[in-house]
Amino acid sequence: MTRLQELSALGVGIAIDDFGIGFSSLAYLPRLPVDVVKLGGKFIECLDGDIQARLANEQITRAMIDLGDKLGITVTAKLVETPSQAARLRAFGCKAAQGWHFAKALPVDFFRE
After folding, report:
1. CA distances from 27 to 20, 57, 81, 85, 87 (A)
2. Which CATH topology does 2-112 take?
3. In the predicted model, is pLDDT for residue 19 greater than 80?
4. What are the pLDDT digits (tens) for 45-78?
5. Could you tell me which residues come within 8 angstroms of residue 93 by beta carbon, excluding any fewer than 6 positions away?
6. How far apart are CA 23 and CA 110, in angstroms?
7. Is the dihedral of CA 28, 65, 52, 45 positive or negative?
8. What are the residue boundaries of the structural domains of the chain, listed by start?
9. Fewer CB within 10 Å of terminal CB in the chain, N or C?
10. Which residues of 16-46 are buried (b: 16+ CB within 10 A; e: fewer)?
11. Which pTM value belongs to this model?
12. How confident is the model at residue 4 (pLDDT cuts 50, 70, 90)?
């Protein structure tokens, strides 16, 4: 944790990837010098799923976005692949997202030109 605080003090932005999946813990979030939390794509995929899975994941996704806002942390939704997912996330107040809905991955040569 000390190393993260040192990096943050130097102006290095810190992001947690796949938050909400596996071992990432809400208990550590207020103590970490985190700028961005990337919400695991499994939550986003289910926004287009069957009604039962969708309702549960909508509640979790909304709660994570609200928590991020309250803590001053940007929540980035990962694996946004459809217009309906993007629209739902916007309606939930999500300000950052990434995925194929916005752009496919580009080869490195694209940036060399």
Report:
1. 12, 20, 30, 28, 30
2. TIM Barrel (3.20.20)
3. no
4. 888 878 887 888 899 899 999 999 999 999 999 9
5. 62, 65, 66, 69
6. 36
7. negative
8. 2-112
9. C
10. bebbbeeeeeeeebeebebebbbbbbebbbb
11. 0.78
12. confident
